[in-house]
Amino acid sequence: MTELTPQAIALLQGKNFASVATLMKDGSPQTSVVWIDTDGTHVVFNTAEGRIKTNNLRRDARVAVAIPNQENPYEQVLIRGRVVEMTHEGADAHIDGLAKKYLGQDSYPFRAAGEQRVIVKIAPDSVSAG
Known about the structure:
The chain contains three helices and six strands.
């Protein structure tokens, strides 16, 4: 596992979106724009069960993440790694925290009835500035 750089941590903690690339069954890439976070060691995002990226990551843990700086899109960090944890524990509180960060709202307003949230933690293998 590679350590996150100070620049990567700053972009992950900031109000920046990320593109997460996963692999489909046939090996083709699939990307999703997500709200992003870090615990200081891992790249962290939140999704829901049944989504393409969740299914892809359960089958193949390899992932790539691009985080551009929203204030200067020419500054970005590119991270390749693998999922080391997918958990439901704390996922509802985590998405509410991300809603506060990105929307200024105390709870996630887009929650669907019966939706089960998932926290995804990625251990970086490669971190580079783009």
